[in-house]
Amino acid sequence: MTQADWIGAILGLCLTLGVFSYLLGDNRVFRLVIHIFIGVTAAYVLAGSWYSVIFPQLVQPFLSGQDFWNPLALAGIVFTVMLFSKLFPRTSWFGVPVMGLLVGVGAATAIGGAVIGTVFSQVAASIRLFDFLKINTWNAQVWVALVDASLILVGTLVTLFYFQFYIRKQPGSQGSVTGWMKTLRLVGQGFIAVTLGAIFAGVYSAAVAALVGRLATFKEFFTLLFHP
Amino acid sequence: MKQVWRTIAVILAISAGILVLLGYFFDLSAWGLDSVRQVILRWALILAAVALWVGAGNLVRVHWRKMVSRQDGGGYSLVTLASLALTLVVIVVSGPNGKMSQWVFNHVQIPVETSLLALLAIVLIYASIRVMRRRLNPFAIALFLTVIILLLGATNWMGMEASKFSMLREWILAVPVTAGARGVLLGIALGTIATGVRILVGFERPYEE
Amino acid sequence: MSFIELNRVGIAGLLFVLAFAAGFLSLLGSGKKLSRDRLRTIPAFSRLEKALYQATEGGKCIHISPGRGGLFNLPGAATLAGLRFLKGIYLSAGLSDRPPIVSSGEPFVDILSTEAVEEIQRAHDARHIPGEPASQLTGLTPFSFAGGALSAVAGQDVTANVFAGHFGSEIGLMIDAADPSGAQVFASSENFAAQAVLSATVEDPILGEELFSAGAYLQGEPDVLASMLIEDIARWSLALVILGGIVLRYLGVI
Amino acid sequence: MAEQDCPICGQANPEKSETCQKCGANLYWAEIEPGEVISPLANKSPQEQDEARILPGIEDSLPAVPAAFTEPSAPVHPYRLMVSETQKNYVALLEKMTHPDQIQPADLQAAAVRKPRYLLLVWGILLVGILSFSLFWDELQVGIPPIPAEVLAVNRSISKIPAGAPVLVAVDFQPAYTAEMEMASEAVIDQLVAQGTNLVFMSTIPTGFWQAEHLIQKIKADRDLVESAPVNPNYYNLGFISGGALGLANFVNEPYQFIEAQLPTESSASTAGQSASLGNVTSINDFSVIFVLTEDPDTARDWLEQVQPHLRRTPLMMILSAQAEPMVRPYLEMQPAKIQGMLVGIAGGVQYESLSNQVQTARENWTASVLGNILGGLVLGVALTAFLVFQRWNPPAAPAAKEKKP
């Protein structure tokens, strides 16, 4: 390892211990490390956006004169100035049109992504679950697949009905759901609990992997330190 | 003047939104609108990157004010501003793919961020036990039972044959999780469409001053 | 290209959105009085209302975070839903002598939060501490956003934290930071990793589509109440389409 | 004869008199007795009254939901006095608020005290201790999980890629997931480097450029460690595409435009890494394979919704964190499958390393990772059992029986 690597490894270990000091309670060392981290990440985000997007796609076409008279590129510059006007309360009103444009485009991408990417693809996948052509082969595996498909269909529908907002209010009920809708929602809540439980196990596994990675770095450092 | 500016914003929001939305459903090149749509999307991409600089400007202004007015935590603000400036100088001087830029990323950003995620491993189990103590309804029981099965079924233990847990784990991921995720996704999609429609019909205008 | 050749999915998609918009506008235009009493109870919102009054009466403050979702796609819709949370809470708790603290993790979210807060402060003459920013951007990446927001979450005078918008698994750190001071936590997100974490670490999680209903439960706003009725109708329609599609597939039509 | 005291000056007046003999004040106010006014909380049980208050335990505190927001049942108004109970309570509270030492409600006091968390520290030390022990004790080994079909599919696809063919690698994970994602993907990227493919890195995350460089540096360093034949990776780092799904949609339509914008020109200091022959890449289908490395289910879905519909021959492979698997697996099992191969977390890395036998990073950390998962599962299992048993013996107090409304 070069000298720079040694210094870097020691710095990384000190910062790691600073973060883990959080287990002793919110303390100055932890806050110091976090505030260093906030500054460093902000710098990388600024550099990443400048070198990859702003310079090659906005500034360079102007410097090279390629887009100097291109009205669309000019509009891009005007919108950029409008966006920066949002930094100060006094000039903030000047940036309202560009925020309107972005919120409108954002809403359109949200609707487009939701309709085509989620609603249609999930509905089509729910329908395509059932492959009736294979049923007449009386194969045990096909029947298992059919049972699974029916379970997925029922699970999808009861989960969807769990979120039903409007209910037929019973006199005196405090807004609690009653009757068959209550059973439907209970089953739906079960499916949601299993789904979120599976994802929570994945989040915990990913966090354990990060912890193992940090400890492996400790092991590597001390191994090299004592057995160069 | 501000009222005119606000009207322009509403017109821009609705017209650009509808044009971009139609592009999801139809090939607009037949009406020559596809190139206009591409230009609007390119503006949005570039402005998304420019917004990072506006955000950094806000970050600097908040920390500068805290530092100058000697508020509680003003010292930490100085640390943030100093590390931001120092890292930017290193990246500009040594270039984005320079050795020093990569050195700071390897030995400051990755260790701290990985440690924060590693901290989450400890904190999640502790917070889950806290919730068990306060609220143990059927939803929480089903959730934690699933977590336990999936964690114990991560692999066959100590070389044993694939334990029953991992076969149960595969089935859980394939059937109930697929069903639950699909139902929740459809619900979120409906909520998203409702929110987007309120913007495109001009009923909701979060961008207005 | 004749109208018929336009692809069928596109037409179905456009009809779906048009039906949604037509239903929404006709419901609002019909003057039909929708009230939040016809909604099912969501315990978290009732508890949140109580926490708002407690903070206002006790001279304490609330920390709200609309997340880091930006403006585009599903995370962008979660941001807009988070802003409805922000407005609903600020209208209730904004009049106390300690206005709520707002933190965010993305520039567009920060800009829109600032505008929402300043609009309420002007319209309702809510208390504003001069020099104090309406909203704070605490970090530009997920974990620096969470790290920077910890000091607001664990603030001395904060009795309740509300996380509503797009988050990732870093929300686990923010939820845990509220524990030592005993502050209450209300959390909702459209991201599945965040939903998994908050459903295992918060007492009354607000799940999935409920994120988009804050305007109705907190303020009883007619446009959100109308949207929710249309969502319920669309929910049953999708179920019928799925069941109908399976029947057609059984008959060999599709 | 009973007398009535004047509420203003306290003078005793005969019962029937309308006005005070001393100050002339109207004696009408004196007729109301405290408590005669009917309060909205009157017909509720003491426990419900206490729960309905904002500050439980404080007698005079306001009802949690002020009269304006209560259920729209018939509003209860005092018969004679024009001051409602709520307003009377407000007055009482304002008087108390002017003497702050009197108002220290229990639950607001609790917020000021910071509880030390010993259980968190103990659990942290236990977890770190066991993982460190398993890392240092090499004999402790856990078996490799069986290799699923989707991992074999990745290996098959890579072995068919000719030398010099362009391969797109999207480094779309946050720096926090570096450990897990590099353990999962190192064996795959190492094999691509060994086969001499043209790697094209890109990212929808601002720090993605340096993340890709870190991955390449790690592969070079690990190859030097095992003294295997040093290889100079032929790669091209396009850096950051902004706008998330929008950026992907734009990249899919015009990949060459984005690549040209990143090409190194004399004056530019752009993020060009080592240049690779990208002249023949004009459409997204010109890439031999597309790999997406991510921990976020939303990012994976962006690629599946914006890029996958445009692919004809090019296979789309995903290398995921464990937290994204539940949301992305359905796309693998769909008919027709939208993903042609998938690796998940350290398990995926271990499975692939057992096929290619080159890199062993995931294998070295696999045992510790499994122990961490099992330990978490056991602790949650013990806690859940304990609380269920505890709840069985001490069922929470049943809520007070609801009074029948008159």
Question: Any overview of this molecule?
Answer:
By secondary structure, chain A is mostly helical. Chain A is built from six helices and no strands. The longest helix of chain A has 47 residues. Chain B has 209 residues and is mostly helical. The two termini of chain B are 13 Å apart. Chain C folds into two domains: 188 residues, Rossmann fold (3-Layer(aba) Sandwich), CATH 3.40.50; 34 residues. Chain C has a five-stranded parallel β-sheet, sandwiched between helices. In chain C, α3 links the parallel β1 and β2. The longest helix of chain C is centred in the C-terminal third of the chain and has 29 residues. Chain C is globular and about 65 Å long. The N terminus of chain C is likely disordered. With 406 residues, chain D is α/β, with parallel strands linked by helices. In chain D, α10 links the parallel β6 and β7. Chains B and D meet through α2, α4, α5, α6 and α7 of B and α4, α7, β5, α8 and α11 of D.
Number of helices of chain C: 9
Number of strands of chain C: 5
The name of the CATH topology of the largest domain in chain C is: Rossmann fold
Mean pLDDT of chain C: 88
Order of helices and strands of chain C: HHEHEHEHEHEHHH
CATH architecture of the largest domain in chain C: 3-Layer(aba) Sandwich
Count of separate structural domains of chain C? 2
Question: How is the biggest beta sheet of chain C arranged?
Answer: 5 strands, parallel
Give the % helix of chain C.
55-70%
- Percent of residues in helices of chain A comes to over 70%
* Major pleated sheet of chain A: none
In percent, how much strand structure appears in the residues of chain C?
Answer: 5-15%
The end-to-end span of chain C amounts to 26 Å
Quickly list its features:
heterotetramer, C: 254 residues, alpha/beta, Rossmann fold, 2 domains, 5-stranded parallel β-sheet, 9 helices, 5 strands, globular, D: 406 residues, 6-stranded parallel β-sheet, two-stranded antiparallel ribbon, 13 helices, 10% strand, elongated, disordered C terminus
Write the layout of secondary structure elements.
The complex is a heterotetramer of chains A (228), B (209), C (254) and D (406).
Chain B: H1 2-25, H2 34-68, H3 74-94, H4 99-134, H5 138-152, H6 164-174, H7 176-200
Helix pairs in contact in B: 1-2, 2-3, 3-4, 5-6
Chain C: H1 8-29, H2 43-58, E1 61-67, H3 73-93, E2 101-104, H4 107-123, E3 136-137, H5 142-153, E4 158-166, H6 171-177, E5 184-189, H7 192-201, H8 214-219, H9 222-250
Parallel strand pairs in C: 1-2, 1-4, 2-3, 4-5
Chain D: E1 3-5, E2 12-14, H1 46-52, H2 85-97, H3 106-112, H4 118-136, H5 149-159, E3 166-172, H6 178-194, E4 198-203, H7 208-225, E5 235-240, H8 245-253, H9 255-262, E6 289-294, H10 297-307, E7 316-320, H11 325-333, E8 341-344, H12 345-356, H13 361-393
Parallel strand pairs in D: 3-4, 3-6, 4-5, 6-7, 7-8
Antiparallel strand pairs in D: 1-2
Helix pairs in contact in D: 4-13, 6-7, 6-12, 8-9, 8-10, 10-11, 12-13
